[in-house]
Design goal:
heterodimer; A: alpha+beta; Beta-lactamase; five-stranded antiparallel beta sheet; 23 strands; elongated; B: mainly alpha; 3 helices; 7% strand; rod-shaped; disordered C terminus
Chain lengths: 569, 134
């Protein structure tokens, strides 16, 4: 009999087998640990992160567009949207009643939406004010959720819609400055990385990484809200009274190139709930820089300025006008078909003689004429920050299709395509002592890093100060003609020039349909404003009749608004 | 019969307990060490739980404050918009015309003041409407 408590005899093979088994198990565990911790570490970490991590983008606040006085033209405002999930609402009648009380919506409609939202969240109210949102939050209604919604608002109403442009539902710019300055305005979105529980909720004590969103910069424009509004009102009236199809009014400070107003018709209405409509795409583009036209007699200013600068002609150089000039067998006639006899260069501008303008261009020769067209900015982009800008075009002697007739017609503004902004900039050059400034639309960028002021930029000197002064004198004599007396503004001197251009169509010029325009610089002797008025296809046809009254109205507004006292009685 | 040998109190062990199955000797230092460790561990765990609860509470408070901040920021934006709308030319013009019955004025009158003479001379006046074309 074995003594009680005595251990059985040890079996060495059993111990060895047990040790081997444990060693094998330990090796297996170690191998798996190596796989999980080292070999597949990156992959498994990613899977874990995907399972637990919640990456939530934080939208950045879009910067505002301000006018030159700092008044907001387009701002982003955060509202709240209200959603419901029926399955989480214990007492639908009570919830619907409370929501109806706060939101001012019918109880029946809310009750229907709650019942419809049995399985997924359903929107019941959009763009709820913060005051209402606070009330909803304070009510602690289960199954009711608030979500922030950002909207672009326009405190001044639909002002300069084609210039400002608009944003899409994703908050990104779709046209105008909203599009071209999107990167500056949009800022940088942030990111919030949190851990989530099995139900997808955030673990408040879990890991949290926050990359804050950077607010977009505010842009201070050169546009003045009063002048812009006045320009839009006067243009609408001019188009209506002349039974036109559209038009443009542009105002520029010649000394800086700052665009103070740029109104165009037809256009669209800016509103917070505006949605892109492909059928209206043509209205969204900033037509004063995208659409070209033949400027007509306004271009005679450029022809004469070049002639005087090159001493090819002077203000009193005489020319005999027979009423017709034949170039390559084609007759060029004056607008009224008349011959004016011996006239001076001053009278060529006063009477707007096509024959005289082509004669001045002939005195210059094509090389010098086209050199000045280029210097005045025709055929070149102004680089104003608007989408789809057209450089305009005209044939030069380098083109195989160019002919002497092109020089003649170009001299009085036909067979040349230019944008209204190019024409305004060229005219402003004459009001700035012959120095062309680059058109400016954005004056200041107010970003998180500070304020960046964009200084006026000189494009180039085009003509001498003497030539520019002579041109102002010639333009003044154009405006002071008796035929324009009804448009004079007592006490103020203005320099101006009319333009009436036939509209080119597929089969040639469409006689009877014109672009009637008038450009002006004022007040003399030191013009602070360059103004272009164009009325498209007016019933009265001529620039002096259709556009001059609008130019007068525009200058009256400017002088009153800018408190410019009269300089003569 | 199997049994568990419980450590005996020290005084019994020292006073000479019956020999045979003697309980293992446990030093006083070890008991103190284990007891102290347990107390320390309990304190640490309590502190941890307390800290976690404080952090959780704070996190919920931060969340609530952030929500409140967002609401206030939104309200601020909406009020700024209302102010901008009230100052807009559209509203000013509407108020002037419709509510106050104001009409467009004549051309402004500019006065020339001679610094040496208190008399004021009217340099230019006109009754012509500024918006004759409107």
């Amino acid at each position: 009999m074995q003594a009680a408590g005595a251990a059985p005899a040890a079996q060495p093979w059993r111990l060895a087998a047990l040790g081997l088994g444990m060693a094998a198990f330990a090796t297996l565990v170690a191998q798996h640990l190596f796989w999980y911790q080292v070999a597949d570490q990156a992959k498994l970490t990613a899977v874990a992160a995907e399972t637990h991590e919640q990456r939530q983008g934080i939208a950045s606040e879009r910067g505002a567009l301000l006018d030159s006085g700092g008044h907001p033209l387009a701002v982003t405002v955060t509202y709240q949207s209200v959603r419901v999930l029926g399955s989480q609402i214990r007492d639908p009648e009570k919830t619907a009643g409370r929501l109806a009380q706060i939101l001012g919506l019918p109880v029946d409609e809310l009750l229907r939406k709650i019942r419809e939202a049995d399985r997924e969240w359903k929107l019941v109210a959009d763009h709820v004010s913060s005051a209402q949102a606070s009330q909803i939050e304070a009510a602690h209604l289960p199954g009711v959720d608030l979500r922030p919604v950002r909207m672009r608002e326009y405190p001044e109403g639909s002002l300069a819609p084609q210039i400002l442009g608009f944003v899409g539902i994703d908050g990104r710019g779709l046209s105008g400055l909203e599009l071209t300055q999107d990167e500056v305005l949009a800022g940088k979105p942030g990111l919030l990385v949190t851990e989530r529980d099995t139900e997808g909720g955030e673990i408040v004590v879990g890991r949290k990484e926050l990359l804050p969103a950077l607010k977009g910069a505010d842009l201070v424009l050169t546009l003045d809200r009063y002048l812009q509004r006045s320009a839009e009102r006067i243009l609408a009236q001019a188009v209506r009274e002349n039974k036109g199809t559209g038009g443009v009014i542009g105002i520029m400070d010649p000394t800086t190139g700052a665009i103070l107003a740029l109104a165009s018709q037809p256009t669209f209405q800016l509103s917070p709930d505006l949605q892109f409509d492909p059928r209206q795409a043509a209205l969204y583009k900033p037509s004063p820089v995208t659409d070209t036209y033949e400027p007509g007699s306004v271009l005679k200013l450029i022809t004469v300025a070049a002639g005087i600068e090159e001493s090819a002609v002077g203000p009193d150089t005489k020319y005999f006008d027979s009423g017709e000039a034949r170039i390559d067998g084609i007759a060029i006639r004056n607008w009224d078909g008349r011959g004016y006899g011996t006239v001076t260069v001053r009278q060529i501008l006063q009477f707007s003689l096509n024959t005289g303008a082509q004669w001045v261009a002939g005195q210059l020769g094509p090389d010098r004429f086209y050199h000045y067209l280029d210097k005045f900015g025709f055929g070149r982009l102004t680089r104003v920050p608007l989408n789809g800008e057209a450089p305009g075009s005209y044939r030069t002697p380098e083109d195989p299709t160019w002919g002497r007739l092109d020089l003649a017609t170009n001299a009085y503004g036909q067979s040349i395509a230019a944008t209204p902004l190019q024409v305004l900039s060229a005219v402003a050059t004459l009001g700035n002592g012959g120095v062309r400034m680059r058109p400016q639309l954005v004056r200041e960028i107010r970003g998180p890093a500070g304020i960046q002021t964009i200084k006026p930029e000189v494009a180039e000197r085009v003509v001498s100060p003497d030539t520019a002064e002579t041109m102002l004198d010639l333009m003044r004599s154009v405006w002071d003609q008796q035929s324009l007396q009804t448009n004079w503004i007592a006490g103020y001197s203005i320099a101006g020039k009319s333009g009436t251009a036939d509209i080119a169509g597929p089969g040639g010029y469409n006689l009877g349909k014109t672009y009637a325009s008038f450009v002006g610089l004022g007040p003399l002797p030191n013009p602070r404003f360059a103004v272009l008025v164009r009325v498209d296809q007016p019933e009265t046809t001529w620039g002096g009749l259709a556009a001059a009254p609008a130019l007068k109205a525009m200058f009256q507004e400017i002088f009153t608004y800018e408190r410019i006292p009269p300089s003569r009685s | 019969m199997a049994g568990i040998a419980l450590p005996l109190p020290r005084w019994r062990a020292r006073s000479g307990a019956p020999t045979g199955l003697r309980a293992p000797q446990v030093s006083e230092q070890l008991v103190l060490w284990i007891g102290g460790s347990l107390l320390f561990l309990t304190a640490v765990l309590n502190f941890y739980v307390f800290q976690v609860s404080v952090v959780a509470t704070s996190a919920y408070e931060v969340q609530a404050l952030q929500r409140e901040q967002d609401v206030w920021r939104g309200r601020n934006q909406q009020l700024q918009l209302e102010v901008a709308k009230a100052r807009s030319l559209r509203w000013v013009e509407y108020s002037a015309n419709q509510q106050l019955g104001m009409a467009t004025g004549d051309l402004p009158i500019y006065l020339t003041v001679d610094p040496g003479n208190s008399a004021v001379n009217t340099s230019y006046t006109s009754t012509k409407s500024l918006r004759g074309d409107d």
